[in-house]
Amino acid sequence: AGGRALVASSPAVIAEAEANHPQVAFHLVATPAAVPTGYKSLDAIHAELHKIAEAYPEVAAVVDLSEKFARGETTAEGRTILGLKISDNVAEDEDEPNVLIVAAHHCREIVTPEMALGAIRMLLDPAHREEVAAFQTWVIPVVNVDGYNYVFETEPMWRKNRRVLPSGDVGVDLNRNYLMGWNGGCGGSTSPGSDTYRGPSAQSEAEVKLIVRMSEELRFERVMDFHSSGREVLSGYKCTLMPRELNDLINEHATDLARAANYAVRLPSNEGEHQTDQLAFTTAFAYLTETATQFQPPHTSALEEVKRVLPLLELFYSTRVPVRGHVKDSVTEAPIPARILRTAWEGQFVAGETRHAEKVFGGFSLWLPAGEWQLEFVAPGYQNLRTTVRVVQDETIDLEMRMHSEQVEK
């Protein structure tokens, strides 16, 4: 048959692929008996993280993210999720912008942990000391740890996590379980047997709860989520409207990132996805990148794809954020996790979009188009604070805000 072959566990996955690529005809091919040789198992990936941390102890550390951010909550099969933190003073929580790089929300996409490991190798190269010094980067090679283990041990084309549902079906599509758009017309499937089942409620899954809690605490400036396949950078929301200027900015950066890897740009497959959630509640510089042309290409091909993606990652780090600063108490200098209103857009948001400063240092970052913007900082017990910033392309404004207690006279 003509068209593009797609190894898939159900015709529903074919339907989704054809909806995203109407110019391409897909057809099912047989599920492989095992993953291709050369790929690392979950245990091998975690061992690799520890090996890297031992080799670079001053700048790399393995972190049990479930323990640090989710009070030790485990997955359905009792696992915690590990990540590698990379920073020039890795043992400390520093006053630096946080970056998140994740892979394998969909566990059969075993090419994607190679992208995460490639990002780690890039950052640890001496040529990238500047990124290590400027940011705290958190890399999670495998989000869906239970499913990834199942892919290697039992079913190579498994996609969801491994939680047994009341219906007797197994698994929730983690990349349809996030809050933004979960219950909308472009959310995932409501059928527990579907490969794209969104779950019984938004953020019902331990893996998703962890990412959300990390995001709420660290307020990431930049987010990259690796998937496969298609060689595409996904931009914006699927259906939900956002302010035109914001959508244009997100799409402009997506186009630049895609060009760096000779990839294309398209809309997301659904909402309830990780990167759409980050766009709504954390940062406008959040992208899902569909790598490679297969879920499980030959391992040598995966390593070549890493080389292709590296220029995209370099641009991901080097793109200048327009506004960066802190919100603190005007008297005590204590950090304030204030809500930050982008005044011109507040009446246009329809999905509860928010921005906040992080709580440890009061740090924040804002991605805004060039021009003049009014901002308002709001926090309980404090007088609202308004300011105007003039954003200039390819420059970063340092904005230090000091809020007065409501008990202090203006």
Describe this structure in words.
This protein has helices at residues 11-20, 42-55, 65-69, 112-124, 129-134, 145-153, 206-218, 244-261, 274-281, 299-318, and strands at residues 4-7, 26-29, 60-64, 82-86, 98-103, 136-140, 222-228, 232-234, 264-266, 286-291, 323-329, 339-342, 363-366, 371-378, 385-391, 397-403. It is an alpha/beta fold. It has an 8-stranded mixed sheet, sandwiched between helices. It has a 3-stranded mixed sheet with strand order 13-11-16, with no helix packed on it. α4 (112-124) packs across α10. The chain starts with a strand and ends in a 7-residue tail after the last strand. The relative contact order is 0.12.
- The count of β-strands is 16
Approximately what portion of the residues adopt beta-strand conformation? 15-25%
The assigned structural class equals alpha/beta
How widely separated are the two ends?
A: 74 Å
What string, H for helix and E for strand, traces the elements in order? EHEHEHEEHHEHHEEHEHEHEEEEEE
Report the uncertain regions.
1-5
Largest sheet: 8 strands, mixed
Number of helices: 10
Strand order of the largest sheet: 3-4-6-5-7-10-8-9
Report the radius of gyration as a whole number of Å.
Answer: 21 Å
Question: How helix-rich are the residues, as a percent range?
Answer: 25-40%
The shape, in one word, is globular
What would the average pLDDT be, to the nearest integer?
94
Please describe the structure with a list of short key phrases separated by commas or semicolons.
single chain; 410 residues; alpha/beta; 8-stranded mixed β-sheet; 3-stranded mixed β-sheet; 10 helices; 28% helix; 21% strand; disordered N terminus
